[in-house]
Amino acid sequence: AQRVTQPEKLLSVFKGAPVELKCNYSYSGSPELFWYVQYSRQRLQLLLRHISRESIKGFTADLNKGETSFHLKKPFAQEEDSAMYYCALKRDNTGKLIFGQGTTLQVKP
Amino acid sequence: DTEVTQTPKHLVMGMTNKKSLKCEQHMGHRAMYWYKQKAKKPPELMFVYSYEKLSINESVPSRFSPECPNSSLLNLHLHALQPEDSALYLCASSHAMPTGGGYGYTFGSGTRLTVV
Known about the structure:
The complex is a heterodimer.
Chain A: E1 3-5, E2 10-14, E3 19-21, E4 24-26, E5 32-38, E6 45-49, E7 60-61, E8 72-74, E9 83-90, E10 97-99, E11 103-108
Parallel strand pairs in A: 2-11
Antiparallel strand pairs in A: 1-4, 3-8, 5-6, 5-9, 7-8, 9-10, 9-11
Chain B: E1 4-7, E2 10-13, E3 18-25, E4 31-37, E5 44-50, E6 53-57, E7 64-70, E8 73-79, E9 87-94, E10 106-107, E11 111-115
Parallel strand pairs in B: 2-11
Antiparallel strand pairs in B: 1-3, 3-8, 4-5, 4-9, 5-6, 7-8, 9-10, 9-11
């Protein structure tokens, strides 16, 4: 079965500290993986997708097929990064997007 | 236009009412989705439409009835809902499968539904 696991419900760091939000997945096919962010009272927004290997707002994520992971990283956290972050997997034949349980990132001043 | 627009933003309805949620996009996406999101929980998929045809129904109760009248519009008709159906209902769109390129979904801001 397809599954996305985000082991941390809450990650609290100080401004300027490095951040790593963990995501592990279970899928036998070719996964497409994404990170979505939901700021307070705002819509769910696409942050990163694994296929583009881009950096958005200083965040990067690398797909590690050996470890079935897609961790989200940022070297220096900012207060405005405080939000809920969801890792998501899209099945390659249906387009169905499956979300992890989400990690709340709290960046303290 | 790169947005998914949902109306209304808020809706309060009684258990005997009939109401509809609307979703619109003009990005040329041929796949559209309804998700339900409870507070502090991830979105849960309800329905998938691909090329205006229902392709996935995630065992949603029949009191929720989706409709896709054309490639830009998606409706969710509600009837005889229960208080536990109160949630944020999200619409999303994307390029239809099968496509490569790792395209994600574009989400609307949602309709916050309260059933009393």
